[in-house]
Fold:
Amino acid sequence: MSRESMAPGSVRSAAEVNEQIRALWLRAGGSLSAQERAEYELLVVEWAEAIRADVIEAA
Structure:
């Protein structure tokens, strides 16, 4: 799922995004195509935002 297709304000948990990252690597067999690399980069940014939100919420 791309970030553009998500409803505004909807946020997935870091665990959900991490699971999607793991699935992407599994499907790719450890070597990402250019398109998969772009998807991976978006997922990592989303994961970092989710982690940041968790830390802020915990504080």
Q: What stands out?
A: The helical segments are 14-28, 34-58. Confidence is low (pLDDT under 50) at residues 1-8. The first helix runs from residue 14 to 28.
